[in-house]
Prior knowledge:
- The chain folds into 3 domains: 3-120, HUPs (Rossmann fold, 3-Layer(aba) Sandwich), CATH 3.40.50; 129-208 and 219-313, Serine Threonine Protein Phosphatase 5, Tetratricopeptide repeat, CATH 1.25.40.80; 320-499, DNA Cyclobutane Dipyrimidine Photolyase, subunit A, domain 3 (Orthogonal Bundle).
- Helix content is 45%, strand content 6%.
- The protein has helices at residues 46-65, 79-88, 102-109, 129-137, 144-155, 195-205, 224-238, 262-265, 272-286, 290-313, 343-355, 360-373, 378-388, 394-405, 422-428, 449-460, 462-466, 472-479, 483-499; strands at 3-6, 29-35, 69-75, 93-97, 116-120, 159-160, 163-164.
- Helix 5 (144-155) packs across helix 10, helix 9 (272-286) packs antiparallel against helix 10 and helix 16 (449-460) packs across helix 19.
- The chain is globular.
Amino acid sequence: MTVGVWILGDQLWHNQAALNRTDDESALPVILIESWQQVQQRPYHQQKLVLIWSAMRHFAEELRGAGCQVTYTTSADFETPLKAWIQAHAITELRVMAPNDRPFLRLIQNLQLPCKISLIPNNQFLWKETEFRDWASSRKRLLMEEFYRASRQRFQVLMDGNKPVGGQWNFDKENRQPPKGKLNTPKALWFEPDAITQEVIEQVKSLSFPTYGNLEPFRWAVTREQALQVLNNFIEQRLPTFGPYQDAMVTGEETMWHSLISPYLNIGLLHPLEVIQAAEAAYLEKKLNLNSVEGFIRQIIGWREYIRGVYFYVDADYFQKNWFNHTQPLPEFFWDASKTDMNCLHQVLTQVEGSGYAHHIQRLMILSNFGLIAGISPQELENWFHSAFVDAYDWVMQTNVLGMGLFADGGVLASKPYAASANYINKMSDYCGGCKFDRTVRSGENACPFNFFYWDFLARHREKLQSIGRMSFILANLDKMSPEELATIRQKAADWHLRSQ
Ligand SMILES: Cc1cc2nc3c(=O)[nH]c(=O)nc-3n(C[C@H](O)[C@H](O)[C@H](O)COP(=O)(O)OP(=O)(O)OC[C@H]3O[C@@H](n4cnc5c(N)ncnc54)[C@H](O)[C@@H]3O)c2cc1C
């Protein structure tokens, strides 16, 4: 029997389950494939293509260095090079670590190959799908906070026996501060492209199909060694003050105190457990503030695992969910930031074009908040997110965009829609200062679209929203508005859509 391993582009880790099942890894035939068809499903950010292909090529080099028989190939599809490689090496069993995305799982299951295919359970997350299912199946509601506590207990992270360190599970009250005065933000750690990355950049420049965003400057890490440097830099320079301004947005400050590690976690260059352990060790050794360390660890051991767990737990038709029946087309400015005068959207979209990155609150409270209140089709917006971000994959897109961002699942994930007017944006950012729209006006001449869309959204869905307990206070405010003003607001929202068609 000859075993061969196919390594997917988001499984670039020496201990990944399909590789570490053999005693003598070096004797293994291994294949990595760049497929042209795969990247034409949507106009991907050019930097994502460089990130994945360069990281794959670097990983292949590392495996070669370790003595593996590596085949690295570029092809239209996956099946053709797989068949040729199976025949050339007389492979009888093809091992693949189970992909994280349902569509890719289907692709593997539909391959017609002349050997057995073994899917090895994925070990790039802390919770296996079956373990999440066991946790979830006995519950009425899948509350993230409950999952987070279970996760902390299970992996004994920031625990003092059975109790959370510091006597509380969550210190968010000390975080969420608005940006005030001059913030001394730390410099992000970026990298110059090496020869392999340069070659991929040239390849991406010559692509003949549609892509998105700017190709250069490309500054992302593409090896495990570089990803570890980013992690260490975060622990040293950013984690100590990660908490307080976690939700703040400032013009020209693209990364604030965020870790920038999602692109690497999502392709296997970093493992969630080592990230959590590094943060906990820094807390213990350097006596860092618990609000920052707990806030960060919650993102990984809580949110990230939960988002992926829910993705596999819900039905496969989750991607079609549209609880509010929103059908407005995605405005053109999502693909070209220069086409909007709304400064917050202009700033965040310009940033995404430049790097494929935005931090959580920019994604949630600017980009998807606009989609939610303006009634954009959830599927169109999810598609856009999937195209635009360097860390986007099916497992993380669906639950974050459709569930958390757009409430398209009717509340599987979020306990109420994350809908907000210009008030929130003005409180948590400096974007409104440089905007031609007036953040204080909701129905007049220069009203901020976030204002009229917000009230239009509440009025449009009053009946549905009434069933959500946490909305009652906000709906009471809607009821205080005069019918004349509400009619003007709703007309402004309708006109905006007409104008943008
Ligand atoms: C609408 C929307 C779309 C999103 N799209 C993506 C995406 O395509 N890819 C992606 O990895 N994350 C996505 N997120 C989650 C989160 O915004 C990003 O993980 C985070 O901004 C990445 O930047 P960072 O590494 O600097 O994160 P930090 O703020 O430093 O957080 C640390 C880590 O926590 C994890 N994390 C935190 N929240 C989440 C979450 N909700 N889901 C998954 N992981 C989380 C990430 O791995 C992140 O690297 C999305 C969130 C929303 C609301």
